[in-house]
Amino acid sequence: MTTDTKIDIPVMADLAAEGKQVDYLYWVGCAGAYDLRYQKVARSFAKILNHLKVNYAVLGTEESCTGDAAKRAGNEMLFQMQAMQNIEILNAYGIKKIICTCPHCYNTLKNEYPDLGGHYELINYTEFLDEQIKLGNLKLDSNPFLNESITYHDPCYLGRGNKIYDAPRNIVKAVYGEVKEMKRCKSSALCCGAGGAQMFKDAEKGDKEVNIERIEDVLEQKVDKLATACPFCMTMLTDGIKFKNKEDEVENLDLAEIVAQALGL
């Protein structure tokens, strides 16, 4: 077991050694493993899974990058090497269902791994949380968010890429009652500027960074909170808030953090 100060997270290798199988594998992703800010999101979602008493596990040190960034950057060989390694491990454990908090991992595992022999049922965490709320398994308390307003930014790989628009908004509405929509939202939403491996390259010539343009859309709504559902978006839009010196006015929270707070976890 990997132990946090507040949570225990089951590791697949430990369970397999005991002859146990899981209902879900939680794919943490590179950001959830290495990025200090997004580690908070991964912990929040793990707390929710534990709260629900879900039979799940993580791969731990056996999990590697899905290869999304390598593929977007044009290195198909590296992508396939990473994918095949992951597929071998997933198939060895007999994994059937995978929950992802990162839309990039979700998209790659769902739409690109099947070509290489990786066939799994992929579940985005927003759809999972939305379903659990509708089933009445998550009793959310809106008191921590009273008198606050919020907007939601559609991640490209979640929205336009996989047509997941309603689930994230249903989660926000379950806590806040409403979502103040930006002019550019859903299928017309603007990218945060990090997708397609853009996060890992130098800026090109231009008048303005994409994340600054997008955070201006957010600030137009005059909200207290910005909800995101992607580690790339979390990084880029938080940087945009800092660039505009609005840290004291707008807080960027992932949907998993909002739900965890509403559960008092």
TrEMBL record:
Keyword Phosphoprotein: no
Top-rank taxon, per record: Bacteria
InterPro entries membership: Cys_rich_dom, HdrC_iron-sulfur_subunit
Residue ranges of every copy of the Cysteine-rich domain listed in the record: 24-110, 150-237
Entry GO MF terms: 4 iron, 4 sulfur cluster binding; metal ion binding; oxidoreductase activity
Keyword match Metal-binding: yes
Keywords: 4Fe-4S, Iron, Iron-sulfur, Metal-binding, Oxidoreductase
One protein family per Pfam: CCG
Cellular component GO terms, alphabetical: plasma membrane
Name by which UniProt lists this protein: (Fe-S)-binding protein
UniProt organism field: Ancylomarina salipaludis
